[in-house]
C-alpha cells in the first residue's frame, strides 16, 4: 500500500510541478524567491486560521484539491458511506431478482391518467346530462333573425373621398380625382346620414343579438361533457384493459413492498452518490479561478510540501530569517500542523488520482435511476389501503359499456367555438356601436346638411378651376374638418365590426346548433358515471396506482443496470477512503492545535490573507510576463514581418484596430529587457528590494489587441493563405495567441503586490528580530481580515456588520474622529430647502446634484464632510450614494480617495456599491469601488479646531443658584480666565456648560429647562460644570473637552448614558433618529410646544399636527429607520385611555406607537438602534408586516 501511494505521489508531483524554465534568467530567479515568500506567508495564515478556528478545514482542503466550494469536504463529512455501500449491494441484489412485470407501466400510467381525469368531472357529467338548455338555445336561434345590414356596413369610400377632398394634401393627382370624389359624395353622404341615424338605435334594433352576450357560459358543462365523452370513446378498450391488469397489480404491490419499506435507504444512497460525484467534479489544477485561502500555492498541492524546503532555502535563511536559526525553529514548530495537513493532502491526492480517471458514466446512470425511484414517494398508509381495495376497483371498471351514440366530436367542438365567438363578437359589436353613437358625428345636423348643400352645389361639368375656390373655402371650414375626422373614426369602428364576421358565424351555427342537444345523452348506457362514483366510493387514487407502477419500472431498471455496474462500488470505496483521511486530519487538528507564542508584536504587521492574495495575483502575472520573455525571439520575429502580413491581420480583424500591434510589441520587448535588467540588480538583495520588481512590472503595458484573437482567427486564417510569406507567419501568431500580452489593466494588481511585500517584510523583520514571536495576545492573523474580505467580495451581511462594529469601536475609542466634525465643515450649517423643510443639504451635496466637479472638488479639498447625509423627499443619502445614482464616476473616485465610507447605507438600507449594480455605468463604478477598497483607507482631513475656536455658554438655573456663592465664584473665575471664548447666546456656542450631579449626570426638569433639552441632539458639546473647576486648577483641561463631556441624563428617576452616542450621531450628520416617523398630537393645542416641535422636525419626523387630520390611507409603507419593533405612526397624547376611546382603531394595531409627553422624551434619550438591517439580527419582537390602517370610529 505504501509503495503504491509513493508511486502515485511521484506521478502526481510530476504532473503538478511547474515546468522548468527554458533558460535561467534573473526574472525566473526573482519569481522563485517571491514564490518562497508567498508559500511561507500563506502557510502562516493557514496555521493561524486553523488554530483559532476561523478557517474551516473543509474549505481549505476543497481549495487545495480544486474542488468547487461547497461541493467538497463539508458534504463529505455528512455521508454514511458504509451504509450507502451496503445499501447499494442489497438493493441491487433484490432489484435484480425481480421478475419482469406483466404490466405495461407506461400504458397503464396513461390509462390511469384518463380514468383519473374523468373521475374529477363526475359531478359535472351529472349536471350536463340534466341541464336544461332550452332557453339558451332559444336565444341563440332567435338571434339568427337579426338584420345584418348595419353590422356589415362599410364607410370606406365616403371616408376616403371626404379626406381626399377636404383634409389630405392637395396634389396634381387630386385635381384629376376631385370630380370623381364630388360626384360620389353627392350620393353617398345621404347614405352616410342614414347609417349613422340607424346606428343610434342599435340597442333596440339589435336586441336579439345582445341576448347572446355571455350565453357561452350556459354551454360550459356540455363542452366539458364532450371532452370526457371523446376521451372515453377513443380510450374505451384501453380503460377496460385496466380491469384485467388490476388483478395482477396486487401481485406487483407485494413484490415492491420491501422496496417501499427501504425508501429512506434509497434516498440516502441517491444523496451519497450525488454528493460524491460533486467531489469528483474538480476544477483543473491550473484554473484561473482566484484562490482565497491558498493564494500562495499557485499550483495547488503541487507545491504545498515545498514549504518545508522553503524554510531551509539559503536565500530565505540569509535575507529573510537573517540567519536567526532559533527563531526559525520556533516558526517551524508553529507550522508543524500545517505540515501535517499538507502531507495528508498529498495522501488524499493519491485517492483523487483514480477518482479522476474512473469512468463517471455508470455512476451517473446509477444516480439517475435512483433519483427516478425516490422521486416517486408513496405514503405507506395509502399504499396499504389501496392494496386492500385493488380488486374491488377492478369490479367497478367491469361495469363499463361502450358508447353507442353516433356524435361527430369535431363538429361539436367547432360549434362550441362558434358559440364562444358569437358571444364575444356580440359584446364587442355592442361596445363599438356605443362608441359610434357617442362620437355624434352628425351633431344637430345643421353643419352636416350645409356640407351636403355645398357639395351638391358644385357643378362638376365645369373645369376644376371654376369651382376650386369653393373647395378651398370648404377645406378652411373647421366644422367640416371635424365631420371628416369623425367619419374616419366611425369607418374604423365599422371595419372592426365587419372583421368579426357575425353574419358568417350565424350561418354556421344555423346548421350545426342541434348537435349541442345530441351531445347531452351521449353517455347513456355506458355506466361511466356509475363507475366513476363506484371508484370514488372505493377511494380509488389513480395517481397513486400510476406511481406504484412507475416505481416498479424504475427499480427493475436499476436492478438490470446494477448487474453489470462495478464502477459505483469502487467509486464509493474511494470516497470512503477520502472520508477516512479527512476525519484523520481533522482529529489530528483537534488534538494538536498550536499554542500561543509568548511575547508581543504589533498586530497590524502580521501577514494576512489579503496580503497573501495580492502577492499571489502579482506572482501569477509575473509568471505570465516571464512566459512572454521566454518567447522573446518569436515576438521579435513577429515585429520583423512585412507590412503585407500586418495588412492581412487587419483584414481578418475588421472591427479591431491593429495598427498599433507592431509598435506595441516592440515597446514590450524593450520593457521586458528593462525588467530583466532590473531583476538582475535586485534578486540578490532583501525582500523589499526584490518586491520592487512588481512596481517595475507595472510599467509594462503590452499590447491592446486581445491576444486570443491572434490564435483564432488570425493564425488559422493565415495558415490557409496562398501567399507563402503570409502563410509562414501563422505559427508565430499562434504562439503569441497562447500568451497573455495585455498588461495595461493589471497595473493595480502589480502595485497591490508591491504594497503587500512591504507589510510582509515588516512582519518577518519584527518576527526574527523579536526572537520568534508569532502572535500577540490581542492581535489576529486571520479573522479581522476575513471580515474585510467578506465586505469586499459581498460574502454576506455578517462580515459587513463585523467590520462596521469594529469601526464603531474605533470611533468611540478615539473621539477626535468625530467630536468636532460638524464645527469644521467650511460651508457652515446644514441648509433647508424653501420648498420643503424636510429637504436638507450641504454645499457638497448641491455640487453633486448640479454635476459641477470643480465646485465639488473645492468642497472636498476644503475638508467637506464626505460622509454627511442629505435629504430629498424623505430619502437620505451620502455624497457617495448621490454620485453613484447619477453615474458620476469621476466624483465617486474622488470621494473614495478622500475618505468616503462605502459601508454607509442610505435610508433604503442600500450600500453605494449595490446601487452601482443598477446604473448605466455599472462596470466603471464597480471598478472604482474595487480599486479604492483594496488600498489603504484615506480619512477626511479635518481643519484644525482647537481651544481658541471654542465658544462657551454657561447655563445658569435654579440648581446652580441653590449651590450658593461658591458655584457663582467658580463661574466668574472661569469667565475671567477665558474671556475670548465666552458667548452670550446659546445658539452661537460650540460648548454649553450644564449643571450635573456628583456623578456627572445631567438632571433635567423639562418644564424649567425645556429650551436646553434639544441641545442634547445637536452638534453642541454639553459639558459638566466640573469642567470649570478643573480648568481653574489646570488650564490645560480646557482643551480636553471629551474628558468632561456630559455622558448621562436623568429623567423621571431613570438615567440614560447615551449623550456621547447622540452627540456623535449629530456631529457626523447621520440619518436623523426619527427618519421614517409620522407624528400626530392628541389633546394638545395646535402647537404643543415650539421647542418640542422644532426638535422632532430636526430629528426627521414628519409632523402632521392634530390626530383629526390622520391620513386616510389603507397601508403603511414608511418605517422608522432605526427601529423595527415599533410602528411608524407616533401619537403623543395626554391620556392613552382618552385616545383609545376617541380613536378605537389605534388599539392593537402595530402601525401606531403611542406615547405620553414624558415617555416620548425618554424614548429619545434611550436612543436604541434595533433595526435588523442595521444590527444584522432579527429579534422576536421585529415587526415584519404592518397592519392596515383602519380609521373608521
From TrEMBL:
Question: Which regions are annotated as ANK repeats?
Answer: 875-907
BRCT domain ranges (all copies): 945-1035
The reply on keyword Membrane is yes
List the keywords (alphabetical): ANK repeat, Membrane, Transmembrane, Transmembrane helix
Q: Where is the Domain of unknown function WSN domain?
A: 25-94
What parts of the sequence cross the membrane? 781-803
Q: Does the keyword Membrane apply?
A: yes
Task: Enumerate the residue ranges of region (Disordered).
Answer: 1-25
Identify the SUPFAM superfamilies for this entry. Ankyrin repeat, BRCT domain
Biased composition (Polar residues) is annotated at 1-16
Pfam families (alphabetical): Ank (PF00023), WSN (PF02206)
- Which named protein is this? ANK_REP_REGION domain-containing protein
Biological source species: Caenorhabditis elegans
